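Input/output pair, single chain:
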Amino acid sequence: MEFTQLTSEPLHEQAYAALRNALLTGRLAPGQSLTIRGIGSSLGISSTPVREALQRLIAEGALQLAANRSIQVPVMTRDRFVEVTDIRLRLERLAVETAAARAGEELCDRLDELSARMQVAINNRSFPDYLADNQTFHFAIYEASNLPYLQHLIGLCWLRTGPWLNGLAQEGRYHSIANNEHEKMISALRRNDASAASEATARDISEAASALIEMLP
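Output:
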């Protein structure tokens, strides 16, 4: 696993952000083992800030200590995935509905740019790029809600589902519809239509979940 090396303080916060982003965008796989030394080497930092970052992610449930004391990305069960998806639908719809009242041209133009980039990534079969921009797209909207604790809760859900997202790379049916709801979300946000933005968000989450659930134990 390669990370961009870090150079400034506070290192433990930057290590946490790098690991968190890798989980959110599917760059760490379910069941994958991580070592303090390996992560430290990739980030170019000592073991202490890496250990602090890992402990924080373990406390959040994004990573777990295995029986042999190794650190692993949890494996999601089907029942847990259904539960997390249901929670996501409730939380993310609330965030989008709240953001719709605040959405302006600057946000919508940024979302248009990200949507165009995602479509290029799909066309080029560059799914890691798609996932990175997908995460940025959604959280740009949630940030516009100006509800930081709600954003935190949504982030915790994404940390649990993110490692499974690469499974969508092999799901051809999903590729044809992957960006459709994003365009509908942008259109609704430009109209400040909270209901339409919420419905498009729900369809976006549900379509991905429907494709992923068959891959789960």
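The mean pLDDT is 89. The radius of gyration is 17 Å.
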